[in-house]
Amino acid sequence: MSFAETLDNLALTKSALVQRFEDLISPKSDHELEAMAQASRSLTLQNFGRTMRLFAPLYLSNECINNCRYCGFSRDNPILRVTLEVDEVIAEAQHLARQGFRQILLVAGEHPKFVSRDYLAECVRSLAPDFSSISIEVGPMETEDYVRIVEAGAEGLVVYQETYNRGVYAEMHTAGPKRDFNFRLDCAERGYAAGFRRLGIGALIGLSRWQDEAIALAAHLEYLFRHCWQAQITVSLPRLRPAAGGFRPLFSITDRELAQLVCALRIVFPQLGIVLSTREREISDERSPAEIAAVLRRRGLEPVWKDWDQALCSA
Ligand code: SF4
């Protein structure tokens, strides 16, 4: 069964694991939430020790052929459009490398001409000698296109579904190939078939009720853990902000609810990578990577700049 079928039947049929997750995100007393936090912390320590993996995004292009109502890069927004030349990408990446990063996420809008498979492969190939982990977050592609990017040296693929509610999805994505909900939904599996060893999914918090998005996300995670079991699976929970074009988030989640959601994810998926942004709660975070690393160390955590090297496979 494809995940699309699972998703479309979710209102009627939920697995035992998703039912457990649904219970964990239902309203809790302070005492219950504290117990969840303790259980979650202990599972994190068991599975990850005190480590926290650090990576940085590098924006390649804001060219885009889609209109997404919540995004300032939408094609109808009259903004300055820039796509970095490969030399400029290398220069930006070297700046990040000087700050300690060896794990990088290449981000771009969806544009087959400016952000083509070959352009992405060339960027990845140029960065591979200096970065142990290169991931991409770009428009969905076919498996054979992903294969070329994996061969160039990329190991991670990130594609957020944005919202798992088909009606809201259709309302938010008003033009462009992104309107194809199912093509996006199957992206992680195509990436896995192409050889990506890290797969990241997520939902934007703010397009519909967070509880509904979280349940669909949990079902998607369960599906990926079963079908893409050799990959490391990660999840992101970005909270939407107002964007160019006048968009204002329609729904919200409190800090307490977000903490409960993170704990519920950890309890139900002990091996899941949970991605947190340093920009959480702020529009921009001016602290340097070294300052963030120092904050983590002060809290007894170990910042990890590199957790993988291709040489491990070629011995
Ligand atoms: S596809 Fe991505 S970059 Fe393009 S408008 Fe939508 S969210 Fe923005």
Account of the protein in words:
This protein is α/β, with parallel strands linked by helices and 315 residues long. The protein has one domain: Aldolase class I (TIM Barrel, Alpha-Beta Barrel). The protein has 13 helices and eleven strands. The strands form three sheets. The chain has a seven-stranded parallel β-sheet with strand order 2-4-5-6-8-9-10, covered by helices on one side. Strands 1-11 form a two-stranded parallel ribbon. Strands 3-7 form a two-stranded antiparallel sheet. The longest helix has 19 residues. 35% of the residues are buried. The structure holds iron/sulfur cluster. The site of iron/sulfur cluster has 9 residues, from loops.
What structural class results from the helix and strand content? alpha/beta
Number of domains: 1
Instruction: Describe the main β-sheet briefly.
Output: 7 strands, parallel
Please bin the fraction of helical residues: 40-55%
- How are the strands ordered across the major sheet? 2-4-5-6-8-9-10
Count of DSSP helices?
13
Classify the fold: give the CATH topology. Answer: TIM Barrel
Question: What would you say the CATH architecture is?
Answer: Alpha-Beta Barrel
